[in-house]
């Protein structure tokens, strides 16, 4: 009677199961676990053939790339395809190691019929970790239903250059905000137990968003202190708070070191200093890029060897270097088998943690039941409303019952495609169903799915701003629409009709827009970087023409780009920022415009006055807020047009009673204050806590965000907040690169934005210089009474 291998025993410790399985694997079987296939490679003929599948993966495979984000399958059919792939490897390979299917999930699960939530930057604009965790929980439930167990999200890049096209995917410019929102997202996605969750991926390690010229993939020039304190900190925070399952490398080089092939970045820093112990997965084709882009390798085998030695465990989206080229490196003695074993060990451990050996299949018949539920759409609408940022208001909003005629104007007013970010479904799938153009533009060859598998522009029901306003106001208000112009181009033929429509109205709501995506023509998105941050096309001229009509203007900027709005801000009565909002965009916006929801979104980035200011952000080091000798440019202030954390409300909040209890560099600091709603309507306030180290051994930021709290207050209500700040939160890398908190004077400030500071007090921390470890920073906590 045969015995069952230990690795098949669900009661055995994961570590023992991994070692038992690893010891039984041949070199071919090991290398297969480090590789990947596009899911569409199995259905290129329009049908799934198990014989084709086993020919492609006779030893199994580590991952399958994107069923949802590469096909047009509904959830039930998507789950069936996943089951079919699993059946092949489980029943027709020697060891029966299950596959991980990975997907995109930046603004919702990138899958047909999945809830299209606001894009990443919009989620950050809510400053609401609890809401973000709920969003990620929905993403988890939908991914689990179709058997996708690995999400290539969240984006933890610190975005301080708005020329870069991927800012919309990020959580903004500040490492504490990014770390807090990222923590919430990962908790919602992974849950408390990966066996019931989806593995999250922190990307892109490291410094990716601060590339030269704001150009995608371009080199990054950062010193070791800035690299750690700013750009590594969101990753460190999410690692220590959540045990995030995987990390993805950046495409860029940092000080000449390509991240995909750098032991200093992926091993010494990521694993050694920050303590990460899970798999590192390759951003698509980044192993090959060591050869054909960075030119640090001459052959695919050399590229594979450099990447694996650096600590990059899995090649995505398809196996080009980690197959036969890597095998040749091992057999020639240029790469020790122990290096391969280390990577395989990490991959197998993740598969065991996900419970795939016990539960490789899903119930395909039930998959659709967790897609497009009323509760999910309600959550999406709530997320849109909370992410909407009121930048300026002269009393024009909320719309009053006296408003009887409304003009709705602009290219973004009634176009569902413009509600999409570059990683939303179906905008992202333009990369697939426009495959010839995509291959020519990106060089990324995606096997095209045919027949019933073929992708297309399949939208969930999307609510545009025009539709949302009509639904909100019903027959009580006359609403007339004029497009005015397109997002791009110089056609002004629609101006006259738009101006006439505005003149006949009590107020004009003008929705100007960008177009996010991967394939041009677009205005924002991956590889779509810009030197001009003004509104695209002739939209600024449209606003000027409408302003001349003398009808009060409410301008909504619906765009993933951070635009320079100096030329229009004085022409409008109210100005709002709405990042790519997804399927409930129009309803969520209408809730804010009509006053059903009091606006509470806050900027996760600073908005520059002009592109020449870049970079401009709140956390600049000492002296970074001015230009010597005269403090400003010859043609502009150095301050942003709208600061980080800014956002207005329909009510007014007052701050009072600041008290700080502190002792030394080892004892937590308690900062207490009261916040009151002194206006006439209920609303949410986002209270932001900043600090400044008055004298330090290196130049420290003038404004260091330590934490924040979002609270709801009824008119006349007061609530007390207590922030507890551990001294490790104040630590930095000193001249000797020790991570320390120094004694001395610190100012602590509470405010409604980085520049709207309401309360400040300076205290002295006594004691010795205290040395901490970055991976053990204690997050600021808030108690609300």
UniProtKB/TrEMBL annotation:
Residues 685-754 form the Fibronectin type III-like domain. Keywords: Hydrolase. The keyword Hydrolase applies. It comes from the Bacteria. Gene3D superfamilies: Glycoside hydrolase family 3 C-terminal domain, Glycoside hydrolase, family 3, N-terminal domain, Immunoglobulins. GO terms for molecular function: beta-glucosidase activity. It holds the Pfam family Glyco_hydro_3_C. One of its GO terms (biological process) is glucan catabolic process. InterPro entries: Cellulose_Degrad_GH3 (IPR051915), Fn3-like (IPR026891), GH (IPR017853), Glyco_hydro_3_C (IPR002772), Glyco_hydro_3_C_sf (IPR036881), Glyco_hydro_3_N (IPR001764), Glyco_hydro_3_N_sf (IPR036962), Ig-like_fold (IPR013783). Belongs to the glycosyl hydrolase 3 family. This is Beta-glucosidase. It comes from Dictyobacter aurantiacus.
């Amino acid at each position: 009677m045969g015995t069952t291998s230990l690795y098949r025993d669900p009661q055995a410790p994961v570590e023992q199961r991994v070692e038992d399985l690893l010891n039984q694997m041949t070199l071919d079987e090991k290398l297969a676990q480090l590789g990947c296939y596009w899911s569409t490679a199995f259905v290129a003929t329009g049908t799934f053939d198990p014989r084709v599948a086993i020919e492609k993966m006779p030893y199994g495979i580590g991952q399958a790339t994107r069923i949802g984000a590469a096909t047009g399958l509904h959830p039930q059919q998507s789950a069936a395809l996943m089951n079919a792939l699993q059946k092949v490897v489980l029943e027709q390979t020697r060891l029966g190691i299950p596959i991980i299917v990975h997907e995109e999930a930046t603004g919702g699960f990138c899958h047909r019929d999945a809830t299209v939530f606001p894009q990443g930057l919009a989620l950050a604009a809510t400053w609401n970790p609890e809401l973000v965790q709920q969003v990620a929980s929905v993403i988890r439930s939908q991914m689990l239903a179709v058997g996708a167990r690995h999400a290539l999200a969240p984006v933890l890049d610190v975005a301080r250059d708005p020329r870069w096209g991927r800012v919309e995917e990020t959580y903004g410019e500040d490492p504490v905000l990014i770390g807090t929102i990222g923590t919430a997202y990962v908790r919602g996605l992974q849950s408390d137990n990966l066996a019931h969750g989806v593995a999250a991926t922190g990307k892109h390690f490291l410094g990716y968003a601060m590339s030269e010229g704001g150009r995608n993939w371009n080199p990054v020039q950062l010193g070791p202190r800035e690299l750690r304190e700013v750009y590594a900190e969101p990753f460190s925070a999410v690692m220590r708070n959540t045990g995030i399952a995987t990390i993805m490398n950046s495409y860029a080089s940092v000080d000449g070191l390509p991240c995909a092939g750098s032991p200093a970045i992926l091993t010494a820093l990521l694993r050694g200093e920050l303590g990460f112990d899970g798999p590192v997965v390759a951003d698509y084709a980044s192993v090959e890029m060591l050869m054909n882009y960075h030119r640090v390798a001459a052959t695919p085998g050399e590229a594979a060897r450099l990447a694996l030695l650096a600590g990059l465990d899995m090649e995505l989206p398809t196996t080009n270097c980690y197959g036969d080229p890597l095998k040749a490196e091992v057999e020639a003695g240029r790469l020790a088998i122990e290096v391969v074993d280390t990577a395989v060990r990490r991959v197998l451990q993740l598969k065991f943690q996900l419970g795939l050996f016990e539960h490789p299949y899903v119930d395909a018949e039930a998959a659709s039941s967790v897609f497009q539920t009323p509760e999910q759409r309600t959550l999406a609408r709530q997320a849109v409303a909370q992410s909407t940022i009121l930048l300026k208001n002269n009393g024009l909003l909320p719309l009053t019952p006296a408003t009887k005629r409304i003009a709705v104007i602009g290219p973004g007013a009634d176009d569902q495609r413009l509600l999409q970010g570059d990683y939303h479904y179906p905008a992202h799938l333009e990369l697939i169903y426009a495959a010839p153009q995509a291959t020519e533009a990106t060089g990324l060859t995606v096997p095209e799915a045919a027949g019933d598998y073929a992708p297309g522009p399949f939208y969930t029901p999307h609510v545009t701003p025009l539709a949302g306003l009509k639904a909100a106001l019903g027959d009580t208000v006359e609403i007339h629409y004029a497009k005015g112009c397109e997002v791009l181009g110089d056609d002004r033929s629609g101006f006259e009709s738009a101006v006439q429509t505005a003149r006949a109205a009590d107020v004009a709501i003008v929705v100007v827009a960008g177009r996010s995506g991967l394939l041009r023509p677009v205005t924002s998105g991956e590889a779509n970087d810009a030197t001009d941050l003004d509104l695209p096309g002739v939209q600024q001229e449209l606003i000027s023409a409408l302003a001349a009509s003398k009808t009060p203007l409410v301008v909504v900027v619906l765009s993933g780009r951070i635009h320079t709005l100096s030329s229009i801000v004085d022409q409008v009565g109210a100005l709002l920022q709405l990042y790519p909002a997804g399927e409930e965009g129009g309803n969520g916006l209408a809730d804010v415009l009509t006053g059903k929801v009091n606006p509470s979104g806050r900027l996760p980035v600073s908005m520059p006055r002009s592109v020449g200011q870049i970079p401009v952000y709140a956390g600049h080091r000492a002296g970074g807020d001015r230009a010597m000798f005269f403090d400003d440019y010859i043609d502009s202030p150095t301050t942003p047009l709208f600061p980080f954390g800014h956002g207005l409300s329909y009510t007014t909040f007052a701050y009072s009673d600041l008290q700080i209890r502190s002792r030394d560099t080892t004892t937590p600091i308690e900062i207490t204050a009261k916040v009151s709603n002194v206006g006439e309507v209920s609303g949410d306030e986002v209270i932001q806590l900043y600090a400044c180290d008055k004298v330090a051994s290196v130049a420290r930021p003038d404004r260091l965000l330590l934490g924040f709290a979002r609270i709801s207050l009824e008119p006349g209500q007061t609530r007390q907040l207590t922030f507890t700040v551990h001294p490790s939160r104040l630590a930095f890398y000193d001249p000797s690169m020790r991570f320390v908190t120094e004694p001395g004077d610190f100012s602590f400030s509470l405010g409604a934005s980085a520049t709207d500071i309401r309360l400040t007090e300076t205290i002295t921390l006594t004691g010795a210089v205290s040395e901490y470890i970055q991976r053990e920073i204690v997050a600021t906590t808030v108690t609300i009474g």
